[in-house]
């Protein structure tokens, strides 16, 4: 093994010029695996809660683990909180707290959501802190309901081999029941700022160890081949999660052909206890059609936020299972009817042996409860018939990753990348931190999450460049102050009368080839709270962001908000009973934002900038008539179809929203960063009559394959001896390889053409025996 070159490619710390060692790579890998294991423990905790598995939930705590559940009378006080210690006592408390709303009794519901993780690992890697939003939606099947929402500020410890919860600290923000809705917890119905375990400075710290880092004395480094396997595993996990979350976005908009293209040719959809599709596109189409026809018509809501996705990969990294929670928020405005659909899922996916692209084999849903919005979930809902105990789809075991199987070979002849996967988790942390600071309107803090040349959209107005201006625009709007970084809210005792919760969930994160930059899309789900029960309803939108690594910290480069896709008048009347807004009202809103609220602070790019073309049409403050729910706002896509590579009419990429056209000098590539790939790389290969191999490599529009290496190989098992020919892709995206006649006497189907990627595009693959891809 050529150790040096392998290490360089595997994980060179992108922020130093030195070279990693097996020790520093092992350390970095362990840190990243730890962060993912901690997230899985907390997500597993929620998955068990949905089926009342109190003993297993309690077993996720360390021996001296503490559960501390804050009081609605005084959320911050430890002494008023309920405190229980040790797994046995915790199990008992969980059971008692649930009562009959345990998810076990027929018709009961015990949905625990925890998401938007912000995990900070200690320097020595043996403890961690994690902030999550939390929400419980409970019902006993006999009419009683309970709603709780707040923040977890938890602690974790690695004892023996596994990560465990050492402190589960719940801070309530709101509480109530279904019929009345929820209102603020806290003294006088007002909400305090929940203390943060991180700062804007620590939120984006790189997870990678410096190249000169050494391992603790009692631990041995992984071998380079073990590192190669484990890093591949992390890279594959990222791809699988992106695909599952993307499926959700396509379903939201009922883009049926695009959903079907995510499946294998014999893929299926199963709804436990209700129906299972025949294999293949027609069967999938028949199940999807039950949700309604293709595309959303005005007044139709088909929102399916996905929470807490855990990915489990098979040891050969060729198949994967994804388990989590999906909540259908369904509405028909003309009928003034809405529905809740709570489902757990356990989907399976496979890696295409031809192209290496992941595809869905089976979407597998298990219903918890479906309920009409008007009556709610308290009486067991309309499905399932409430006489049977729900059967959970199998839970995952949280064992540490397996060792490299003896017969495992990498899929591509290029090394996997640790910086790309750490970029995934670092970006999720910063994304979560932003959501939290936005909830608390901590202008200075969220401004400091941005890069020095970062820019953020102030809704209804435009983008402001630099943390100073971002903070100022926010302060002028919310604080009536003209000093940047002025933050009255930093006083921890400050009580607020309402909280505009910004849940940033269901991330799709596309990392650049060097891992220094990413494109991030998250769903925005607002579940805010105020003093009056039932007066805050749920709203939805979408973020389109990019992040970069700057001085060893992940920072926001671009932040763009597309809001709102849909709104609720309030909790009581829900999303199906919104009065259409008159154009006069939206014009008034915009004038208010642009005039009074920011008091003349000009954005660097106005939403009316002509070179944004149609991108901001219909959004508040953008050109043209404002499109507000129940009208259907356009859903833009910053990336291509993850299986076919196709671009839709609503594609806006590569490059951030204002960078394309309006501000080319804000492009990542104009600032020393790589533009992340927007989708898969297609490789087409053809044998010519005179015995040459013509290869064409295709990315998306404006994505060039040139400069990347193409190799003709006998499949990867043959190792280096299987390399038959190679060449460099030219500016037209193609290259012709010369091969000896002897080499071509191999069975064509065993000859593969690999594209190794360049500074933008990912690797791609096809078989020479394949006629047309
Ligand atoms: C709650 O409101 C009452 C009456 O307005 C006031 O006297 C009291 O100080 C308030 N308590 C807190 C903690 O703000
Ligand atoms: C690693 O190098 C940095 C400077 O590049 C130095 O500050 C640090 O002490 C070194 N750490 C170790 C463990 O040698
Ligand atoms: C690790 O070993 C080195 C050299 O033997 C020693 O100087 C150091 O104190 C040891 N560190 C720990 C934490 O045991
Ligand atoms: C789907 O097709 C693949 C390839 O032909 C086959 O290996 C697999 O067993 C099939 N799966 C199912 C569930 O039918
Ligand atoms: C499947 O669910 C639908 C409601 O979504 C219901 O109308 C139908 O009866 C169910 N079918 C079976 C076989 O339970
Ligand atoms: C929505 O409700 C209206 C009025 O009840 C009905 O005519 C229409 O078919 C419904 N649309 C869908 C897509 O269910
Ligand atoms: C769907 O999941 C259930 C377990 O919840 C399992 O028994 C079933 O085989 C799965 N269906 C498919 C097609 O994988
Ligand atoms: C906010 O600032 C403006 C201008 O500085 C001032 O006129 C106004 O009185 C202030 N409002 C409040 C509520 O402090
Ligand atoms: C919610 O909106 C409806 C319709 O406008 C109104 O009748 C009701 O009072 C509102 N409820 C709350 C709690 O604000
Ligand atoms: C909207 O504004 C126009 C002109 O300012 C006015 O004529 C019209 O009556 C307004 N419509 C409503 C519904 O207020
Ligand atoms: C991809 O786009 C092309 C051109 O718009 C279209 O002909 C083709 O059907 C699409 N492929 C898939 C799988 O959607
Ligand atoms: C490919 O051709 C070269 C030159 O003729 C030969 O040395 C090599 O063994 C061939 N490799 C295979 C796998 O056929």
What does this structure look like?
The protein is 21% helix and 32% strand. The strands form seven sheets. Strands 1, 2, 3, 4, 5, 6 and 7 form a seven-stranded mixed β-sheet that branches. Strands 9, 10, 11, 12, 13, 14 and 15 form a seven-stranded mixed β-sheet that branches. The chain contains 13 helices and 32 strands. Helix 2 (22-49) packs parallel to helix 6 (224-252) and helix 6 (224-252) crosses helix 9. The longest helix has 29 residues, at 224-252. It has four domains: 3-203, Nuclear Transport Factor 2, Chain: A, CATH 3.10.450; 233-372, Roll (Nuclear Transport Factor 2, Chain: A), CATH 3.10.450.50; 419-671, Nuclear Transport Factor 2, Chain: A (Roll), CATH 3.10.450; 682-767, Immunoglobulins (Immunoglobulin-like). Mean pLDDT is 93; it is low at 1-5 and 11-16. A hairpin with a 5-residue loop joins strand 12 (306-313) and strand 13 (319-332). The two termini are 34 Å apart. By secondary structure, it is an alpha+beta fold. Bound molecules: 2-acetamido-2-deoxy-beta-D-glucopyranose (NAG) (12 copies). The site of one 2-acetamido-2-deoxy-beta-D-glucopyranose has 5 residues, from helix 13.
């Amino acid at each position: 093994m050529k150790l040096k070159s392998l290490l360089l490619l595997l994980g060179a710390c992108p922020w130093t010029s030195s070279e990693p060692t097996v020790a520093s790579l092992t350390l970095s890998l362990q840190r990243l695996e730890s962060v993912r294991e901690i997230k899985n423990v907390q997500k597993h905790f929620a998955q068990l809660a949905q089926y009342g598995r109190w003993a297993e939930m309690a077993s996720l705590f360390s021996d001296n683990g503490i559960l501390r559940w804050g009081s609605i009378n005084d959320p911050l006080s430890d002494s008023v909180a309920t405190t229980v210690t040790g797994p046995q006592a915790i199990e008992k408390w969980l059971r008692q707290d649930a009562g009959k709303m345990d998810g076990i009794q027929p018709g009961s519901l015990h949905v625990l959501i925890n998401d938007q993780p912000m995990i900070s690992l200690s320097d020595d890697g043996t403890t961690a802190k994690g902030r999550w939003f939390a929400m419980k939606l409970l019902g006993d099947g006999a009419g009683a309901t309970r709603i709780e929402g707040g923040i977890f500020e938890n602690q974790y410890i690695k004892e023996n081999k596994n990560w465990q919860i050492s402190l589960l600290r719940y801070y309530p923000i709101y509480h109530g029941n279904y019929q009345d809705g929820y209102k603020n917890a806290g003294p006088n119905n007002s909400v305090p700022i929940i203390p943060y375990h991180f700062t804007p400075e620590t939120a984006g710290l790189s997870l990678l160890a410096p190249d000169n880092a050494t391992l603790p004395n009692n631990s041995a480094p992984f071998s380079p081949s073990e590192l190669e396997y484990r890093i591949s595993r992390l890279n594959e996990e990222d791809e699988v999660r992106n695909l599952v979350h993307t499926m959700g976005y396509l379903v939201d908009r009922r883009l049926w052909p695009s959903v079907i293209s995510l499946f294998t040719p014999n893929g299926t959809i199963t709804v436990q206890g209700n129906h299972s599709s025949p294999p293949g596109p027609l069967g999938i189409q028949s199940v999807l059609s039950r949700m309604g026809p293709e595309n959303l018509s005005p007044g139709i809501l088909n929102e399916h936020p996905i929470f807490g996705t855990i990915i489990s990969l098979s040891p050969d990294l060729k198949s994967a299972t994804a388990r989590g929670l999906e909540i259908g928020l369904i509405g028909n405005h003309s009928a003034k009817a809405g529905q809740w659909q709570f489902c757990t899922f356990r989907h399976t996916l496979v890696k295409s042996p031809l192209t290496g692209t992941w595809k869905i084999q089976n979407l597998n849903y298990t219903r918890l409860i479906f309920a009409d919005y008007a009556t709610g979930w308290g009486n067991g809902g309309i499905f399932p018939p409430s006489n049977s105990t729900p059967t959970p789809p199998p839970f995952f075991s949280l064992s540490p990753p397996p060792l490299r199987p003896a017969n495992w070979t990498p899929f591509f002849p290029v090394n996997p990348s640790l910086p790309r996967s750490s970029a995934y988790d670092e970006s999720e942390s910063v994304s979560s931190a932003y959501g939290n600071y936005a909830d608390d309107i901590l202008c200075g803090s969220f401004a400091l999450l941005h890069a020095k040349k970062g820019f953020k959209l102030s809704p209804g107005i435009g983008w402001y460049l630099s943390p100073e201006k971002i903070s100022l625009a926010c302060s002028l709007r919310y604080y009536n102050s003209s000093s940047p970084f002025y933050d009255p809210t930093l006083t921890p005792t400050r009580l607020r009368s309402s909280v505009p919760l910004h849940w940033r969930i269901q991330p799709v994160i596309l990392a650049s080839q060097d891992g220094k930059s990413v494109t991030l899309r998250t769903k925005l789900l607002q579940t805010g709270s105020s003093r009056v029960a039932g007066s805050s309803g749920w709203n939805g939108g979408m973020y389109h962001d990019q992040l970069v690594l700057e001085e060893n910290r992940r920072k926001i480069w671009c932040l763009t908000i597309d809001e709102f896709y849909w709104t609720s008048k309030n909790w009581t009347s829900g999303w199906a009973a919104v009065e259409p807004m008159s154009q006069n009202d939206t014009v008034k809103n915009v004038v208010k934002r642009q005039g009074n609220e920011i008091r003349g602070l000009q954005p660097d790019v106005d939403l009316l900038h002509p070179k944004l073309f149609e991108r901001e049409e219909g959004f508040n403050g953008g050109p043209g008539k404002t499109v507000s729910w129940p009208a259907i706002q356009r859903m833009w896509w910053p990336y291509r179809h993850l299986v076919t590579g196709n671009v839709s009419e609503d594609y806006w990429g590569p490059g951030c929203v204002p960078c394309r056209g309006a501000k080319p000098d804000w492009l990542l590539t104009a600032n020393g960063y790589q533009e992340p790939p927007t989708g898969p790389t297609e490789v087409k290969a053809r044998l010519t009559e005179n015995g040459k191999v013509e290869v064409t490599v295709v990315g998306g529009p404006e994505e060039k394959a040139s400069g990347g290496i193409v190799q003709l190989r006998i499949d990867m098992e043959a190792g280096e001896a299987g390399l038959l020919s190679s060449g460099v892709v030219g500016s037209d995206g193609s290259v012709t390889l010369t091969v000896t006649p002897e080499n071509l006497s191999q069975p064509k189907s065993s000859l593969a053409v690999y594209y190794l990627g360049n500074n933008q595009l990912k690797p791609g693959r096809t078989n020479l025996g394949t006629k047309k891809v």
